[in-house]
C-alpha cells in the first residue's frame, strides 16, 4: 500500500512528428532530458510519433522514446501514425495500439482513436464495454488517453477532425468515474472542466507546426490525495499551471498559460474564485505567474 503523502508524477508528451519537415530534434531531446529529471512514475505519449507513418519515421521515434527513463511508458498512435499503413510499423516497434496500466493507485486506459488515412478519430462502440471493464479496477486516479480531442479546442480554426463519437465517449467516461482525459492532435494546449472530469489537451512537444502565438509544450500532472495539478512546460522554457483541483470536492482553479498562445493584458482579466472555481493566477512551487500581457512569439502557422 502506498504512503498517503506520496506524490505521483505523470509526464504527458504528444505530437512528436519525427521525420516531418517541421520536426525539431533539439526540442525533443530537451523535453526528454527534462522529463527524465522529473523522474515521473508514468510517461504518456499520446500519438503522432511520426510525420507520415513511414518506417524510418517510426525507427527515429523508437530511438527517442527509448531515451525516456521511466518504467511505465504508455504509447499510442495518432492519425499521422496511421497514414501509409503505418499502424503496422507501430505494432512492430511499439506493440499493441491499446494499453492499460494499473499501478500504485493510478489507472491509465489508452486507446487508438486513429483511422487509416483520416484526420478525424473514433473510439467505437465496440470498445465501450472493454473501457468500462478496465476502469472497474480500484483506483484513486483514473486517466483516459487518446490522440484526438473529445472537446473542441479554442483558437484552432474550424472544427473538423475530432472524435466522431465524442458525445458517447464523454458519457461513458463520466459513468466510469474518469478524473482526467489526456489527448493531443491539435498542437494547441488547453484544458476543460466537464462535470467532474478534466479534459486536457497537449501541444506539440517538438515541431514548429504552431498556430498563432502557441508555443511547443508538454504536460506535467502531479497527484496527491489532497490535490491534482496540471502544468504546461515549454521545452527549455517556463513551466506554468493550467488547472489545479481537489480530487474529493472537485473544486478547481483554471489558469492562462503562455504556451496556449492566449494571454490577455492583466487589467483585462478578472479573478473569479468564489468556491475554488474559475480563472486565477498561478502560484507556488516556482511556477511562473500564468497571467501576462500578450506578446508575439513569431511562430509560424501551418494547419
Structural class given helices, strands, pairing?
alpha/beta
Unreliable stretches covering 5 or more consecutive residues: 268-303
Q: In this structure, how is the largest beta sheet organized?
A: 8 strands, mixed
> Percent of residues in beta strands?
15-25%
CATH class identity = Alpha Beta
Distance between the amino and carboxyl termini: 47 Å
In CATH terms, the superfamily is Metallo-dependent phosphatases
Our count of helices gives: 5
DSSP strand tally = 14
Sketch the topology as an H/E string, one letter per element: EHEHEHEEHEHEEEEEEEE
Our count of domains comes out at 1
- What coarse outline follows from CA principal-axis ratios? globular
Assign a percent range to the helix content. 10-25%
Global Rg: 18 Å
Helix and strand arrangement:
Layout: E1 8-13, H1 25-38, E2 42-46, H2 55-65, E3 73-76, H3 87-94, E4 99-103, E5 106-110, H4 128-135, E6 141-145, H5 166-175, E7 180-183, E8 190-194, E9 197-201, E10 218-223, E11 228-233, E12 239-245, E13 252-255, E14 279-280
Parallel strand pairs: 1-2, 2-3, 5-6, 6-7, 7-9, 13-14
Antiparallel strand pairs: 1-10, 4-5, 8-9, 10-11, 11-12, 12-13
Helix pairs in contact: 2-3
Structural account:
The protein has 303 residues and is of the alpha/beta class. The protein has one domain (8-280): Metallo-dependent phosphatases (Purple Acid Phosphatase, chain A, domain 2), CATH 3.60.21.10. Helix content is 17%, strand content 23%. The protein is built from 5 helices and 14 strands. The protein has helices at residues 25-38, 55-65, 87-94, 128-135, 166-175, and strands spanning 8-13, 42-46, 73-76, 99-103, 106-110, 141-145, 180-183, 190-194, 197-201, 218-223, 228-233, 239-245, 252-255, 279-280. The strands form 2 sheets. An 8-stranded mixed beta sheet has the order 3-2-1-10-11-12-13-14, covered by helices on one side. Helix 2 (55-65) packs parallel to helix 3.
Amino acid at each position: 500500500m502506498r504512503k498517503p503523502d506520496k506524490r505521483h508524477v505523470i509526464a504527458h508528451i504528444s505530437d512528436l512528428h519525427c521525420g516531418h519537415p517541421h520536426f525539431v530534434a533539439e526540442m525533443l531531446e530537451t523535453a526528454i532530458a527534462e522529463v527524465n529529471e522529473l523522474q515521473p512514475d508514468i510517461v504518456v505519449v499520446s500519438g503522432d510519433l511520426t510525420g507520415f507513418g513511414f518506417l524510418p519515421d517510426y525507427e527515429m521515434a523508437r530511438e527517442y522514446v527509448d531515451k525516456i527513463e521511466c518504467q511505465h511508458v504508455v504509447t499510442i498512435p495518432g492519425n499521422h501514425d496511421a497514414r501509409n499503413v503505418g499502424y503496422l510499423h507501430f505494432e512492430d516497434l511499439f506493440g499493441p495500439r491499446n494499453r492499460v496500466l494499473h499501478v500504485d493507485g493510478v489507472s491509465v486506459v489508452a486507446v487508438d482513436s486513429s483511422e487509416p488515412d483520416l484526420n478525424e478519430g473514433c473510439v467505437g462502440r465496440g470498445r465501450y464495454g472493454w473501457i468500462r471493464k478496465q476502469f472497474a479496477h480500484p483506483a484513486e486516479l483514473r486517466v483516459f488517453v487518446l490522440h484526438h480531442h473529445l472537446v473542441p479546442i479554442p483558437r484552432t480554426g474550424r472544427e473538423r477532425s475530432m472524435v466522431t463519437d465524442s458525445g458517447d465517449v464523454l458519457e461513458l467516461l463520466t459513468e466510469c468515474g474518469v478524473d482526467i482525459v489526456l489527448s493531443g492532435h491539435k498542437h494547441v494546449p488547453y484544458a476543460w472542466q466537464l462535470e467532474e472530469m478534466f479534459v486536457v489537451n497537449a501541444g506539440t512537444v517538438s515541431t514548429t507546426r504552431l498556430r498563432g502565438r502557441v508555443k511547443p509544450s508538454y504536460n506535467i500532472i502531479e497527484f496527491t490525495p489532497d490535490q491534482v495539478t496540471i502544468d504546461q512546460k515549454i521545452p527549455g522554457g517556463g513551466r506554468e499551471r493550467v488547472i489545479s483541483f481537489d480530487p474529493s470536492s472537485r473544486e478547481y482553479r483554471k489558469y492562462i498559460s503562455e504556451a496556449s498562445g492566449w494571454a490577455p493584458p492583466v487589467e483585462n482579466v478578472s479573478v473569479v474564485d468564489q468556491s475554488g472555481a474559475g480563472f486565477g493566477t498561478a502560484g507556488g512551487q516556482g511556477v511562473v505567474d500564468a497571467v501576462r500581457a500578450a506578446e508575439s512569439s513569431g511562430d509560424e502557422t501551418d494547419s
